[in-house]
Amino acid sequence: MCGIFGIVGHKIDEAHLRKATDLLSHRGPDASGYFVDGGIGLGHRRLSIIDLEGGRQPMFNEDESLCIVFNGEIYNFPELRDDLVARQHRFKTRSDTETILHAYEEWGEDCVVRLRGMFAFAIWDRTSKKLFVARDRFGIKPLYYAEQGNAFYFASEMKAILADAALRRDMDEASLACYFSLSYIPDSMTIFKGIRKLLPGHTLTRQNGRTRINQYWDMAYEPDRSRGEDYFINRFMELFHEAIRMHLISDVPLGAFLSGGIDSGAVVAMMSMATDRPVNTFCMGFGGNAGGYLDERVYARLVADRYNTNHKEYEIHPEPEDLLDKIVCSFDEPFADDSAIPSYFVCKIAKENVTVAESGLGGDEAFAGYERYLGFRARAHYGKLPGVVRERLIRRFVERMSERSDGHYTINHMKRFVRSSSEDDGNAYYGFITRLTTGIGETFFSRESKIGKYLDAPRQIILDYFNRVPAGDERDALNRVFYCDIKTYLPEDILAVTDRMSMHHALEVRVPFLDHPLMEFCATIPPEMKMKWFRKKYLLKKAMRPILPREVIGHRKQGFVGPMAQWLKRDLKGYTLEALSAKNLAKHGLFNADTIANVLDDHFSGREIHDTLIWSLLVFQRWFDLYVNGKSDSGK
Predict the structure, then answer these.
(1) Which entry of 2, 178, 484, 522 is annotated as an active-site residue?
(2) What percent of the chain has pLDDT over 90?
(3) Spatial CA neighbour of 46 closest among 503, 470, 398, 417
């Protein structure tokens, strides 16, 4: 895992190239490398994983006509290497990086379709003066780019691009509306108008001052109802075993996150079967007043004991304000998924023991694991009730209910359900996931900020992806939800937080569930097998019964998040009231202070949980101080 940076289009200042690249040193503390050739500058920071001695970058082909900087892992590189050797290519190293170079020589831009792994890379063709940039299918690895005048920039993180003081930093109002609606910034947008993300499954070519973007991969949902459960279970286990085996390739110590859930448990179980050494496993728990949050460490221990892993645990206490600067400066833009807090610590303890960690991310999208999927399926039955019953009886009753005192989301989920379930499929799903609900969104931003006119932007992004999947029959509606999440929530939220928090500690995290042949197969499984009798992950749980403890398969899913609702009401209340006071909100004037006060009052009184929205505000306030007001060097 590494950090990459490049500039194309004008005479390169080598000192600036080094400075910008070295802002990514946390991603690659083991080595650095730079290449300058007229109008191109490439920089690389290396975290050594494979071919520790021979994999230095930037790397060249035999005649030095091609140069590459690469971040990621190509798991099928041994097979590709054999194929390329048979085609008369000569290798100087054992690295997957060199395999990409020779694949580009052999197949050109189409080389990406042969790569199996996580990657963001750039190849400079010195002969044609062309830059070719690619990002993996699911967006496991990040890639940002910017154009200003004749200059083109790309980087693993925005901070390297922002190192150019001349680059404009105008805030994107639509991105800000998306952030507060979803808690992350989706699609190709960033908080800065001039910086964009290369979308997953896309490539970019820069030549003669022009930029061309091409999509090389997409997920196709084609449920196969000619097969039974046993076929899907057996084939899934074959592909899952293959993915795990390929993800174990490493020249450095390796371990796995073990949360107590079925996804991470499945990864650890399969890893244990694929290796003759005990797996290193790492787990988090929550201290302080955690309210109704389930301590999943007990379930993690059941898996650890069954497979005799080298197991380590860490307990988080409610002092996340101390982490705000680290979180903000890891993203360079507002990001409000509070799973960043446990992710930070589990990556910290993992790095003390290993350099690579496997994760169970992707299992929820593959097998219908989120609570909102259950709600989406249930609304088909709820919609059969007369409208007067839904709106005048059930909704009115639910809206009057106070939230649970222990901070659990049961009542909150019910409120979201009754508010949105009468909408059409796409708008109902958006209602389930948005944070700016009816009654808040309309007055959340101040009139002076004019951001309110962009409130429909996040809805349109979600609906655009939602509607790309053919509706099919009623049973296939969930596939539209899965596709939407794979294009938005997966890359820009959970994979983004995993990448930033792991790279903060120079830890590589791998996600075998997102091996693309495995995910493509899962897209052929009918949704009614993934969720059966309103049981989430029905088929995955059935597949895991022989290899995981019964208690792990049967317990309630909690997700890798902390008890933020309780922390904000108690441990962090004083900090929150100060940070979101009318005085502090006035320094930018973007929000309606009265609406923010009402949101806080609703949360503290227990009328309605607004933990994610409040955390979004806290993160934004700190980002504004660092990157707009410039109160620390982090955002300069």
Answers:
(1) 2
(2) 71
(3) 503
